[in-house]
Amino acid sequence: RKITVDVKGDRFALPCIHSNPIAPAPGAASYVSRLWQFPIDAEHTMIVRYTVFRAADDAAREHATRTFHDLALPRLKKVSAEDAFAGEAQGDVVSARRSEHLLSPDVDVIGVRRLMHRAFTAPFTEGSRVPVREGALMFPL
Known about the structure:
Elements: E1 12-14, E2 17-22, E3 31-41, E4 44-52, H1 58-90, H2 93-98, H3 107-125
Antiparallel strand pairs: 1-2, 2-3, 3-4
């Protein structure tokens, strides 16, 4: 069963932040699942997951709270455990990248990495900040 809601616009808002609209079950409150990942050092990455609900009144807030505890939280825990297993199995970033094989569907991954690398090194190599196109999902390679 498909649990993601049709998305209009980009789901990639900022580097390292991803948003996925979720419709967890018929009649349950929909929400947005957010994932924020950023490297701490060569061997550690901080990952923060959270959910966002919209509630116009106390009844909707109670409905969202039940949805969070009954559906969203168990899913977040399961996905976090699966992601931790996959991430730990890859080893450190340098080793993981050496054996990585990206394909054409990964063009956005490559573009984001290049954009972030250039944004990080630009003050040292170009003497200025790199402009980022607002709302851009595809990055020039």
